[in-house]
Write a structure and sequence with these properties.
With about 220 residues, the protein is mainly alpha-helical. The protein folds into three domains: about 160 residues; about 30 residues; about 25 residues. Helices cover about 90% and strands about 0% of the residues. It contains five helices and no strands.
Length: about 220
């Protein structure tokens, strides 16, 4: 497990330096690398949890065996005080059996405890490496996104000023000028097409207004 994680770190470190030059999407690849690392850590945590459980079981059995040693010792002393040497002898014999078990269990427990401590230390190392790679991943993702944005903007800017765009604007400008010319022409034609009757009607309206104005002045004594 830990060897695999080391290999993964080596692969990631080399890939990070050359990824942007490859066809793969670097953001997706970085996320996949991190998911692989996370899976390694979860598997390691599960293995360590089992190891710790085994360590605790051995410690409990060792404590039970040692407790029996102490119990048989107390019973042997009690039997001697009661003058029952045979019972004391049997208690001491059973005490020796539990002492042997306790010694074996203690050795097993100490080995399991040491293994648990070593595994915890390696897991902490894995997590530190993961945090280091995650920081590098976040930095590279930001750089990749920035590079994509700059590329997109540069392509957009270059397309704005190309000949096709300019020609399109020139065509639209010509159309607008044409519309304006047509509007002016239609106004001139409308003015020229006015009939004599229309002009005389306007003249008559103007004369009527002048007569009304003169009558109003007379009425007000302003003439």
């Amino acid at each position: 497990m830990f060897k695999f994680f080391k290999r993964m770190k080596t692969v990631v470190s080399s890939e990070l330096n050359s990824m942007l030059d490859k066809a793969e999407d670097p953001v997706k690849m970085l996320d996949q690398f991190m998911r692989d690392m996370e899976e390694d850590i979860r598997e390691s945590e599960s293995a360590i949890a089992k190891q710790i459980a085994n360590e605790k079981m051995l410690k409990r059995k060792y404590d039970d065996a040692q407790a029996m040693v102490d119990k048989r010792q107390d019973q042997a002393e009690t039997a001697i005080e009661a003058g029952n040497d045979d019972l004391a002898r049997r208690a001491l014999e059973d005490k020796k059996n539990h002492e042997q078990q306790a010694e074996q269990l203690k050795a097993s427990w100490e080995r399991a405890k040491q293994d648990s401590e070593n595994l915890r230390s390696k897991l902490d190392e894995m997590k530190n490496e993961y945090r280091e790679m995650k920081l590098k991943k976040d930095t590279l993702k930001a750089r990749a996104e920035s590079a994509k944005t700059r590329t997109k903007m540069n392509r957009t800017m270059s397309s704005i000023g190309n000949d096709e765009s300019k020609q399109g604007f020139e065509r639209m400008e010509e159309k607008v000028l044409k519309y304006e010319a047509e509007a002016e022409t239609s106004e001139d034609l409308s003015s020229e097409s006015r009939s004599l009757d229309d002009e005389f009607n306007e003249l008559e309206k103007s004369s009527n207004v002048d007569d009304e104005l003169s009558d109003l002045k007379k009425k007000l004594g302003k003439e």
